[in-house]
Design a protein that fits this description.
The protein has 10 helices and 75 strands. It is mainly beta and about 950 residues long. Strands 1, 2, 3, 4, 5, 6, 7, 15, 16, 21, 22, 23 and 24 form a 13-stranded mixed sheet that branches. α2 runs antiparallel to α3. The radius of gyration is 32 Å and the shape is globular.
C-alpha cells in the first residue's frame, strides 16, 4: 500500500497544533476514514476516527480544522462540525465529522440584490467572494453573462447560481505551505469530467456493483398545464382528443395523458400515479399535449443508481463528473446508457473502501429550490429559513415589543445592545415620534460605543418614521449598539424588558435604559435569522413559529407538526395526517404540584404537571372539544399559539390561581376559560390576559389582578386585560383590578364584549384605541372614569360601574432562571472529571459508571434560600449520539456551587424523565426538591443511576437552565 499522507490539525485560528498519521511514531493514528464528494451542491465531507485517549485527541474539537492532501499537490480544508466518543471492540474511540470549510465561510457572507451586466466569470467570482477569505482560482471560461440577484443570498448560493448560468463546475481547494494555509481558491472548470471508454455491464463484469431503483419521482400519467390567457383561464388539452397507439391513453375530455404499461408495472392499486407538467412555452392545446407526452415518456421509468467498486475502474483514473457507459441487460429491450460519476468515497488508510456512485445520465441542473433543500438539510438555521419567514425573501422583522404600547416619550438619547452570530444585514428601523419634523442622529456602534456609521436624519411625520440603516453586522465583531439621539421626544417601551429578544443569529440583549430604546420594526436579513415579514415571528421554548400575512396566521409549525389554512397537493401519504374535521373530544387533568408530564393526563390521579404538556400533544388543527381541568395553582404563563379548526379548548380552573400571563394568539379554535384567578407576576408590565389575532375567547367568572403604581411604572400593570389585532373576546361576570390606565383595553382592531363585569383601581374601566371596540351590557369596572377612547377607538353601552369585591393584595410571585456555569462528568471507574464538555449518565460496556453534574455557582441558593418555592423546572438537551434511542434519565440534586475535587455526592430524591437522542426538554422537578433548595442544602442538578445496564447510558450538553418560581 502507498505511504499514507499526513493530516494536519489546525486550531480555529488556523495555527498547526497536531499531525495525524498511523505510520509515524508518536503521531496520533487515524482510521475508518472516508472522504465523500458529490456533485450536488459541491457536497464535501471527511469522517475519521482516532483513539479517544491519545493526547492529540483533545485537539479534535468542533471548530478546529483538518488539512487533507490531494493527489495534485493541493489540499482540502475541512472544519470539524461534530465529535462523538464511542466504545467499539474494547477500544475507546473518538469519531470526527468535518465539512468543507468553504460552506461555513461562504454561508456567512451576504450578497444583496443587484444586477451585474456583461460580467465575465472571473469578474463575477471576484464580486461574490468579496468580504470572504476565499479568492478566485483557475477560470476556464472567458464569455460574459448578465447576472441578476433578485434576492438576498449567501455567497455560496450565489456562486452556484453563477456556475449554473455559465455552465461551469466548481472546485474548492487550498494551498498549504510552511504548516499554514496560504491561499483558498475557488476554481471554475469548463468540465471536471472525462469520458471513459470502458463499458460496464450489469450482471456480468460489474461484480460488486449495487443497482438501486428509485420510484419516488415516477409517474404513470401527467396533467398538462399551460399559461393563462387574458381572461385568466389556464391552457389545457381537454378539448384535444388525438388517436394514440398503445400503451398511451388520453380519454375524451381528460386533461391528462397516461401510460398503460407503466400503470401495470408501477401502480400499487391499479390507479394512475399522477403528476403535473407545467409548460410555459406551449401556445395551443396540441403543442401542450405533445410536450406533455414527451415529458411523460421521461418520467415513467425509475431513476437508477449504481454503486461501483473503484478497483473495477482504471487504476488512479476515477474522479467526480467522469462519464462511463453502463449496459443493463435485465431490461427488455436491452438498456444502454451513459452514466456520470456523481459521488466518490475515498479512504487513505483502507483503499478497499473506495467507491463511486453512478447516476442516470441527465443534464445536472441544481435549481434554486434544490439548492434551498440542500441548505435546509445541512444548516439548522440559514438564510433560507429567514426567506421562508419573510414571505418576500428579502428581510424579516426582528422580535421586539409592540411599538407605541406600554411606554413613554422622551428626548433623552438611548441605544439597543445587539449581538450577531452570523453576518446579518441591518436594513431599516422605525422610530415613533411625538411631533413632526424631529431631527437627530442614528449611529451604528461597536460594543464599546465607537462609531461605525453615523446617519443624520429628519423625521417628518408624527408617529412611525422608517430610517434606512443599510449596514452589515459582522459575526467577527459580534457585539454592536444601535444608538439614537433626537431634538424632540420619541417613543420608548417601559422597563423592565425581559432580554434577550431572540431572532436567531440576531439578538437584542439590552439597552441604555433597561427598557426598549427608540428603535422598532428592525428589518434584518442573513443566515440564521428568524422573524416575519411585517409582523412578529413568535418563538417559544420548543422552536415553534407563526408566519403572518394580512394580520392572520397562515403557517403554524413546530418540530413535530405544521398547520396551514389550505393545503393543495396531488397526493398526501403519511402514517397519520392531521386534517380539519377530526372531532375527538378529550379531557385532561393538570396538577402542577403533584402531577408529572410523564403521566397520561387522563385522570386526576395521573395528571400532567403543566398545561404546556397538553398543548404539545394537541394537533395544531382539530374540530373536537379539549377540556383541561386545573387541579392546583399554576405558577407559569399559559400561552396558546396557532391552533386552527372549529374545535375548542375549555379551561376549568376551579378557582385555582395562575400567577403569570394568559395569552391566546393566532387561533381560530375557540378558547373558553372558567373560574380562573389570574394574577400578575413580578416584573410584568403588560396585561395579565392578552388576546392577539384570535377568533373567539371567552372568560366566565374569572378574576384578573394587576398592579396600579403611578409613582413607579416599572412596578405597574398598564392594562389588566387587553384585546389586540382583530381578535374578539367576551368577558362575562368577571372582575378586573389594578392598572395604571385601564382595566379592559381594546386596541389595533381588537373587539371586547363586557357583560356585567366589576372591579376598578385604575384610571378607566374600559378603553378603546386604534380602531378597537368595546361593547358593554350591564356594568363595567368602577375606575376613576368608567370609559375612555382615542385614535379611532369606540366604546358603546356603558351605563354604570361596579366595584365588586376588592381582592386582597396578591403575594408577589417571582420566577428566576439560571444558566449553568459548568457541566461535567465524574468517571467512577477512573476517579476523575472527564472534562469533555458533556454530562453523562450511566455506563457503556465496561467503561464504568458516570455521575453527571450541572453547576450554577451560588445563584439559585442565594436567591431562593428562605423563600417559598412554588415550582421548579429544569431544561437540558440530550446529544444526538451515544446510547440507545430512548433512555430513562434519573435527575437528582447536589450541594455544590462548582466542581468538587473528588466524587460528588447526589441526593436520594429523584425524578425520572425519558429522553430520545437529540431531545431538548423542560422537566418539572418534584416537590421533594423544594425544601433542600429553600434551606440552602441543594445548589445544582445531577444525573445518576446505579444500574450498569447500557440502556441507561446517555450524553447531554454541558449547558442547562434551572428555573424556580417562588414567593
Amino acid at each position: 500500500m502507498d505511504k499514507i499522507p499526513n493530516l494536519y490539525v489546525l486550531d480555529r485560528f488556523e495555527k498547526a497544533i497536531g499531525v495525524l498519521n498511523p505510520s509515524l511514531p508518536n503521531s496520533c493514528p487515524f482510521f475508518d476514514d472516508l472522504r465523500t464528494e458529490r456533485i450536488e451542491y459541491a457536497y464535501l465531507t471527511f469522517e475519521f476516527s482516532v483513539p479517544a485517549d491519545h493526547p492529540q485527541a483533545q485537539n479534535l474539537v468542533v471548530g478546529n480544522k483538518i488539512v487533507y492532501p490531494l493527489k495534485n499537490g493541493q489540499f482540502n480544508l475541512f472544519r470539524i462540525i461534530n465529535t462523538e466518543d464511542d466504545h467499539n471492540d474494547g477500544q475507546y474511540i473518538k469519531k470526527i465529522t468535518s465539512e468543507n470549510s468553504a460552506v461555513g465561510d461562504l454561508l456567512g457572507n451576504i450578497i444583496l440584490p443587484t444586477t451585474l451586466n456583461s460580467y465575465t466569470l472571473q469578474q463575477a467570482l471576484s464580486y461574490l467572494l468579496q468580504g470572504t477569505n476565499w479568492q478566485v482560482g483557475d477560470v476556464e471560461l472567458s464569455t460574459t453573462q448578465n447576472l441578476q440577484f433578485d434576492d438576498v443570498v449567501t455567497s455560496l448560493d450565489a456562486l452556484h447560481q453563477v456556475m449554473d448560468q455559465f455552465g461551469a463546475q466548481i472546485e474548492f481547494v487550498v494551498q498549504f505551505s510552511g504548516l499554514q494555509v496560504v491561499n483558498r481558491l475557488v476554481h471554475a472548470r469548463l468540465s471536471r469530467g472525462r469520458t471513459l471508454n470502458k463499458p460496464f455491464v450489469y450482471g456480468l463484469n460489474l461484480k460488486g456493483v449495487k443497482r438501486t431503483e428509485g420510484n419516488s419521482p415516477l409517474v404513470t400519467a401527467l396533467y398538462g398545464i399551460g399559461t393563462k390567457d387574458s381572461n385568466g383561464n389556464l391552457l389545457t388539452f381537454e378539448t384535444y382528443n388525438p388517436t394514440l397507439s398503445y400503451p398511451y391513453e388520453k380519454p375524451a375530455g381528460a386533461k391528462w395523458v397516461g401510460d398503460q404499461d407503466a400503470l401495470q408495472q408501477w401502480s400499487p392499486d391499479g390507479k394512475h400515479i399522477f403528476g403535473v407538467y407545467k409548460d410555459d412555452k406551449a401556445t395551443n392545446p396540441v403543442e401542450l399535449f405533445n410536450n406533455t407526452l414527451e415529458e411523460l415518456k421521461k418520467r415513467t421509468k425509475p431513476a437508477l443508481t449504481y454503486e461501483v467498486d473503484v478497483a473495477l475502474l482504471p487504476e488512479d483514473d476515477v474522479q467526480l463528473y467522469d462519464y462511463i457507459i453502463v449496459k443493463d441487460a435485465t431490461f427488455q429491450p436491452e438498456l444502454v446508457l451513459e452514466a456520470q460519476i456523481v459521488e466518490t468515497k475515498t479512504s487513505l488508510t483502507d483503499p478497499s473502501k473506495n467507491q463511486v456512485t453512478l447516476g442516470d445520465y441527465r443534464p445536472i441542473q441544481i435549481t434554486g429550490t434544490d439548492r434551498i433543500d440542500q441548505i435546509k438539510k445541512q444548516i439548522s438555521e440559514t438564510l433560507t429559513i429567514a426567506k421562508g419567514a419573510a414571505g418576500t425573501g428579502l428581510h424579516v422583522v426582528a422580535n421586539s415589543p409592540k411599538p407605541e404600547v406600554d411606554g413613554y416619550y422622551s428626548s433623552d438619547p438611548g441605544y439597543l445592545e445587539i449581538e450577531v452570530t452570523e453576518n446579518v444585514h441591518l436594513g431599516s428601523v422605525s422610530v415613533f415620534t411625538f411631533d413632526e419634523n424631529t431631527t437627530g442622529t442614528v449611529k451604528v456602534q461597536d460594543g464599546n460605543g465607537n462609531d461605525l456609521k453615523v446617519i443624520p436624519v429628519t423625521l417628518p411625520v408624527e408617529g412611525e418614521n422608517i430610517i434606512s440603516i443599510d449596514y452589515l453586522l459582522r459575526k467577527d465583531v459580534g457585539s454592536y449598539r444601535l444608538y439614537g439621539e433626537f431634538d424632540k421626544e420619541v417613543f420608548y417601551s417601559v422597563s423592565p424588558i425581559n432580554y434577550p429578544f431572540d431572532s436567531g443569529s440576531f439578538k437584542v440583549v439590552g439597552s441604555f435604559t433597561d427598557g426598549w430604546d427608540i428603535f422598532y420594526n428592525i428589518y434584518i436579513g442573513g443566515p440564521g435569522i428568524k422573524g416575519s415579514y411585517g409582523q412578529d415571528l413568535v418563538l417559544d421554548q420548543v422552536n415553534s413559529f407563526v408566519q403572518y400575512a394580512n394580520g392572520e396566521a397562515q403557517i403554524v409549525a413546530d418540530s413535530n407538526q405544521i398547520a396551514l389554512g389550505t393545503v393543495i397537493a396531488g397526493k398526501v401519504i403519511a402514517p397519520n395526517v392531521v386534517t380539519l374535521g377530526t372531532s375527538d373530544d378529550v379531557t385532561y387533568y393538570v396538577n402542577p404540584q403533584s402531577g408529572s408530564d410523564e403521566n397520561d393526563g387522563l385522570t386526576s390521579a395521573t395528571a400532567f404537571a403543566s398545561v404546556d404538556k397538553v398543548l404539545s400533544i394537541t394537533d395544531r388543527a382539530f374540530d373536537g372539544d379539549i377540556t383541561i381541568n386545573i387541579l392546583n395553582d399554576v405558577y407559569d404563563d399559559i400561552v396558546i399559539i396557532g391552533y386552527q379548526g372549529s374545535g375548542s379548548f375549555n379551561f376549568q380552573f376551579n378557582n385555582n390561581v395562575i400567577t403569570g400571563t394568559f395569552k391566546v394568539q393566532s387561533c381560530s379554535v375557540r378558547v373558553n376559560v372558567y373560574d380562573a384567578i389570574i394574577k400578575r407576576k413580578a416584573g410584568e408590565v403588560t396585561a395579565v390576559a392578552q388576546i392577539y389575532t384570535s377568533n373567539y375567547v371567552y372568560f366566565s367568572n374569572c378574576t384578573f389582578i394587576g398592579v396600579r403604581d403611578l409613582n413607579n411604572t416599572a412596578n405597574a400593570t398598564s392594562a389588566t386585560v387587553a384585546v389586540y389585532d382583530n381578535s374578539f373576546c367576551y368577558f362575562y361576570q368577571c372582575q378586573m383590578y389594578g392598572a395604571n390606565r385601564e382595566n379592559i383595553r381594546a386596541s389595533y382592531g381588537g373587539r371586547a364584549m363586557v357583560h356585567d363585569c366589576t372591579g376598578g383601581n385604575s384610571s378607566y374601566g374600559v378603553f378603546a384605541e386604534y380602531a378597537g371596540f368595546v361593547g358593554v351590557r350591564g356594568t363595567v369596572p368602577n375606575a376613576s372614569s368608567p370609559q375612555n377612547s382615542q385614535y379611532g377607538g369606540q366604546v358603546v353601552g356603558v351605563t354604570s360601574g361596579n366595584n365588586g369585591t376588592t381582592p386582597s393584595n396578591p403575594t408577589t410571585t417571582y420566577t428566576s432562571s439560571w444558566n449553568s456555569t459548568e457541566g461535567n462528568t465524574w468517571s467512577m471507574k477512573y476517579n476523575l472529571w472527564r472534562n469533555t464538555g458533556e454530562v453523562k449518565q450511566g455506563q457503556w460496556s465496561t467503561y464504568g459508571n458516570n455521575i453527571g453534574c450541572w453547576f450554577f455557582n451560588n445563584g439559585p441558593s442565594s436567591t431562593v434560600t428562605g423563600k417559598n418555592i412554588k415550582r421548579m423546572q429544569f431544561y437540558c438537551k440530550r446529544k444526538a449520539t451515544g446510547g440507545y434511542g430512548s433512555t430513562k434519565v434519573t435527575i437528582r440534586y447536589h450541594n455544590y456551587t462548582s466542581r468538587p475535587n473528588g466524587q460528588p455526592s447526589v441526593s436520594n430524591e429523584y425524578v425520572y424523565a425519558t429522553f430520545n437522542r437529540g431531545d431538548a426538554l423542560w422537566i418539572d422537578l418534584p416537590t421533594t426538591f423544594f425544601a433542600p433548595f429553600q434551606n440552602g442544602a441543594a445548589k445544582g442538578i445531577a444525573l445518576y443511576t446505579a444500574s450498569g445496564d447500557d440502556a441507561y447510558y446517555a450524553i447531554f450538553d454541558d449547558s442547562a437552565i434551572l428555573k424556580i418560581t417562588y414567593q
